Amino acid sequence: MNGAAAPLKVCFHAPLLWPLWSGGQVAFTGGAEVQQARLARGLAARGVDMTVVTCDYGQPSLTTVHGVHVRKTYALDAGWPVLRFFHPRLSRTMAALLAADADVYYVRGASLEAGIAFEAAQLRGGAFVFGAAHDGDASTALPLLRNPRDRAWYRRALRGARAVVAQTAAQRDAFRREFGIEATIVRNLVEVPNHATDVASREDVVWLATYKPSKRPDWFVELARALPDRHFVMCGIVPIPPETTEAWDRAQAAARELPNLEVRGYLDQERVGELYRSAGLFVHTSPAEGFPNTVLEAWAHGVPTVTCVDPDGIVARERLGIVAADISDLVSAVESAMADPGERRAAGARARAYAMREHAPDAVLARLESVFRASAGR
Question: Rounded to two decimals, what is the model's pTM?
């Protein structure tokens, strides 16, 4: 008599994911990590044997969180410069990946990690699957990868990937045009709360991102300066060395000057809902993204958006908010939206319905699992 088939074994290589499962003890949250944490937990609940390989933040060497096995690699500050690339970084990462012994190895975002996970998949006879995290991942210019070693290793992993996952149709088309690769679209996952925010009764204009130049926090500060009768709230991650804290310092200085601007630091993922429940409008100032998690989370809460990006033209087509091309457009859009509570409520309802229809966990997880199973020949 044949026994039950062994479960599909999937390993996510996500060095910075552990802070999301640290109970707020480690202050870091990135968009790619938020998605990987949600996907790993969701796939484990569907019966997939899930492992996450992540950096050493003081957690046990091998532990289980949300049904996901977690293997740690190296501490971010461990080792001597130059030599630490080989040990402990490469040596411990490869050891953890090989110990996972997965059918599928998955990395989200163009990076050195994609190359390492690809090599582990090769050694274990598994499949490597790459997931785009940013539009730049689908460009041969690779604007987010500056190290020639990392660029070469990412290109090797992309060529050898059993499957490539895009967030949007624009990314899918770019992979085809730039690399000659056929990608599969799997939407970002968002958990929709039971109740929508009554945005018509809320007055806060909110921003949530990392305080770094690429996210343009200065634009949000200029909004507060231009609209003194509106209340603005900023929350986000304060960069750690070697990245600069200059944008964070400027935002704090502006808050001391502007009575209508409130600047906060890191907000644990478990408390992000509090911010959206206080919002009358969400503003996203970054000029280039994949599909912003923060925008998707706002929509799930029924909060309309003013954004500087419009992935696949969804915002304009579905009337989920307003798209702004420059700072002048941004000021006009925010004032227009805040002056019309009824339209904000209607746009928020459309946004929530869109999130439930296109980004609900069941549909996204089923789609991604089918990609993994096909890649593993299962």
Answer: 0.91
Which of the four pLDDT bands, split at 50, 70 and 90, describes residue 3? low
Q: Cα separation of 109 and 138, whole Å?
A: 10
Do 9-189+360-375 and 199-358 share a fold?
yes
**Rg of the chain on CA atoms, in Å:** 21
158-213: pLDDT as tens digits: 999 999 999 999 999 999 999 999 999 999 999 999 999 999 999 999 999 999 99
Alpha-carbon dihedral angle through residues 91, 371, 130, 113, given to the nearest 10 degrees: -20
259-269 mean pLDDT: 90
pLDDT of residue 2: 52
Report which residue type is found at 309.
Answer: V
> What are 122-163's pLDDT values in tens digits?
999 999 999 999 999 999 999 999 999 999 999 999 999 999
The position carrying tokens 């163009």 is 110
The position carrying tokens 């690779």 is 142
Q: What is the pLDDT of residue 1?
A: 41
**53 DSSP β-pair partners:** 13, 71
Helix pair angle (112-124, 91-100), 10° resolution: 50
What is the mean predicted confidence (pLDDT) over 297-316? Answer: 96
Domain boundaries along the sequence of the chain: 9-189+360-375, 199-358
Strands 163-166 and 184-185, bridge-based pairing:
parallel
CA angle in degrees (0–180, nearest 5) for 190-193-197: 115
CATH of 9-189+360-375, one of 3.40.50.300, 3.40.50.2000, 1.10.443.10, 3.60.150.10: 3.40.50.2000
Supply 166's token pair. Answer: 């895009």
Say if residues 294 and 172 touch (Cβ distance below 8 Å): no
Pick the CATH number of 199-358 from 3.40.50.2000, 3.40.50.2300, 2.102.10.10, 3.40.50.970: 3.40.50.2000
